[in-house]
Prior knowledge:
This protein is mostly helical. The chain has helices spanning 3-10, 23-51, 54-80, 95-124, 132-163, 168-174, 178-207, 211-240, 246-257, 292-307, 335-342, and strands at residues 262-274, 277-286, 312-319.
Amino acid sequence: MPERAAAAVSTPNQDESEPAKSGGESLKTVVIAFAANLLIAIAKSVAAVISGSASMLAEAAHSWADTGNEIFLLVAERKAERGRDAHHPMGFGRESYVWSLFAAFGLFTAGAIVSIWHGVTELLDPEPAGDYLIAYIVLALAFVLEGISFRQAFMQSRAAAKGLDRGLLEYVSSTSNSTLRAVFAEDAAALIGILIAVVGIALHQATGSVIPDAIGSIMVGALLAVVAIFLIDRNRRFLVGEAVRPQMREEVLRGLLERADVERVTYLHLEFVGPGRLYLVAAIDMSGDDREHDLAVRLRRVERDLEQNANIEEAVLTLATPDEVSLQVGGPDHEAAGGAGSRRV
C-alpha cells in the first residue's frame, strides 16, 4: 500500500487508534481515575457519617459508583485488546463498549438514583448535621484528587483533538475510545458535583435548614443521570454500528483512488468494530485487463495491504460492475444516500 494511501486511512483517526493505539495511555488514565476515586469514596463516606450531610452522602455514593465503574473500564481496556480468532472474525473491540455500557448503568443506578433518593428522604425526614469542618476538608481533598484524574483525561483528549484539528468536546463526544470518554465525563461531573455539595453544606450551615443540602443531593443525582444517559447512548451507538465521520470516509476513499492498481471505487462502507478499529467493505475496479485468476490474486493483495494498517480490523473487497456509479472525493455521499442498503457483500 503506497505510503500516502496508508496515511489516508490512519491519519484521520489517530485519536481513536487505541488498541493498536495508545492503549497504554488510556489504561494509565483509567488506573489513575480508579485510585483517585477509591481514596475519595473512603474519605467521603467517613465524612458523611460524621457530618450527617445529605450532599456528602450523595457525593460518597457518586464516588463509590465511579470506583466500581473504573473496574468495568479496566476490564473494557483489557478485553478489547484481544486479537480476532476463528470465532470472533471482527475481534473483541466491541467488548470495550459492552463493559463501558455496564459502567454507565452503574453510574446511573449506584450514583444518580441513590443520590436523588437520599435527597428526597432527607427532605421528608431531616437528620441533624454534624461536623461541617470535616465535610469541607474532605471535599477539598476530593477536589484535588478528582482534578488530578481529570487532568490526565483532559491532557490525553486535548492532544488527540489537537492532532485532528477538532474541538475538545467534539472529540470526547465522538471518539471511539469509550474508556477515555467515560473517565473524562465522570471526572468532570465529579468536580461539578463537589462544588454543588460545598454550596449545599454551606447553606445548611448558614441557615440551619436541611433543604439546601437535600436539594444539593438531588442536583448531584440529576447531574449523574444526565452524564450516565449520555454515556449509555454513545456506547449503544457504537455497539449497533457507528459510521465514521464524513471527513474520514473522504480520506479513505482518496487513499484507495490514489493506488496505482485501483481505477474506480463504486461502494465504500466503514464501520467501527472497536476503539480505533474499522471494518472496511469496498467495491473497486482494478486497473488493467487481467484474467480472472490473476485479478483475484491482486484483489486479495490489496485487502492484505489495507489490513496492514493498524486501524483496519478487516477489509473485504469485491469487483465493481461497469454500470455502477464511481465515487468521487468531495462528491455526494453515496453510502448515506442509500449505497449501504442497496448492496450486500
